[in-house]
């Protein structure tokens, strides 16, 4: 994580903040309840609430009331949030690629791919 956090764009945003934006970007509806968002990130409920407050004040996320349940609140990305997530995401992927291409041979990369696919199948129960 220390190496990944060296990415210059993560100094602007922070890896945990990026994690929130990334999780929201992966949601098919574009919206998650706070407790659902908490299932996707490695933060406690109070920490995620404060993080969402900070991201909202920066214009990166927005809240809306759940139509069926006026007490429920959904969190989603703003246009600015989408743009920042994509910008940081691209840089993050390139940084990971640079690290992996430097450290691993082509054969080791193929082995890593086979192993990660096996882990994914196991987690999904396939």
UniProtKB/TrEMBL annotation:
Sections of the chain in a coiled coil: none
The keyword Transport is assigned to this record: no
Top-rank taxon, per record: Bacteria
Biological-process GO terms, alphabetical: response to stress
Keyword Lipid metabolism belongs to the record: no
InterPro entries assigned to the protein according to its UniProt record, in alphabetical order: HTH_MarR-typ (IPR000835), MarR/SlyA-like (IPR039422), Tscrpt_reg_MarR-type_CS (IPR023187), WH-like_DNA-bd_sf (IPR036388), WH_DNA-bd_sf (IPR036390)
Signal sequence interval, chain numbering: none
Record SMART domains: HTH_MARR
UniProt cross-references to SUPFAM superfamilies, sorted A to Z: Winged helix' DNA-binding domain
Record domain HTH marR-type: where: 1-121
Keyword line: DNA-binding, Transcription, Transcription regulation
Example GO molecular function: DNA-binding transcription factor activity
Protein name: MarR family transcriptional regulator
UniProt organism field: Arthrobacter psychrolactophilus
Classification lineage: Bacteria, Bacillati, Actinomycetota, Actinomycetes, Micrococcales
């Amino acid at each position: 994580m220390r190496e990944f956090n060296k990415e210059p764009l993560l100094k602007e945003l922070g890896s945990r903040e990026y994690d929130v934006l990334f999780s929201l970007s992966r949601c098919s509806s574009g919206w998650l309840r706070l407790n659902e968002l908490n299932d996707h990130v490695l933060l406690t409920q109070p920490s995620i609430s404060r993080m969402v407050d900070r991201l909202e004040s920066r214009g990166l996320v927005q809240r809306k009331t759940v139509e069926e349940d006026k007490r429920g609140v959904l969190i989603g990305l703003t246009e600015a949030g989408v743009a920042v997530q994509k910008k940081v995401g691209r840089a993050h992927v390139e940084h990971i690629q640079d690290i992996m291409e430097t450290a691993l041979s082509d054969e080791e990369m193929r082995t890593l791919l086979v192993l990660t696919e096996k882990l994914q199948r196991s987690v999904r129960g396939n």
